[in-house]
UniProtKB/TrEMBL annotation:
Species annotation: Methylocystis parvus
Protein name: ATP-binding protein
Residue ranges constituting the Histidine kinase/HSP90-like ATPase domain according to the UniProt record: 13-138
InterPro entries cross-referenced by the UniProt entry: Anti-sigma-factor_SerPK, HATPase_C_sf, HATPase_dom
One Pfam family from the record: HATPase_c_2
Any one GO molecular function term: ATP binding
């Protein structure tokens, strides 16, 4: 049985103006984690980046009539793992079909999933009856 040491749930309108707020909350959660100060600041930066990229994707690919839609973010620490789950009602996507960016011809877009996969220990995506869930795990110790 897993021990939940911290759980933070956030629900915001699917608008980009909330990206900074949610990223800052992720940084604060990282600063409460039991790791060294140097590792804590790196973790805070990584969580902010990962979460804002995941939320930006959820917002960008939400339904065209997305007025009134929300994005839910759950951050939890269970045993030695930090979990981030992003829930949305958008069109969804195939995580395995997202290509690695072409670093010789970079554009302004298309690197979010690459960053998420690079910085987290596991990344899964699934559609449920209630919507989409992007689930990311970072092992802390």
């Amino acid at each position: 049985m897993s021990e939940v040491m911290m759980n933070v749930d956030i629900v915001v309108p699917n608008q980009t103006r909330y990206l900074r707020l949610v990223g800052n909350i992720a940084e604060q959660v990282a600063r409460e984690v039991d790791v060294t100060d140097r590792d804590r600041e790196t973790l805070a930066y990584h969580l902010n980046l990962v979460l804002t990229e995941a939320m930006a994707n959820a917002i960008e690919y939400s339904r065209p009539d997305g007025d009134g839609e929300t994005v839910k973010v759950c951050l939890s620490i269970e045993n030695c793992d930090l979990w981030i789950r992003v829930f949305d009602n958008g069109q969804g996507f195939d995580l395995n079909a997202v290509p690695t960016p072409d670093f010789d011809n970079l554009t302004e877009r298309g690197r979010g999933i690459f960053f998420i996969r690079s910085l987290m220990d596991s990344v899964e995506y699934r559609r449920t009856d209630a919507g989409n869930v992007l689930e990311m795990r970072k092992h802390l110790h």
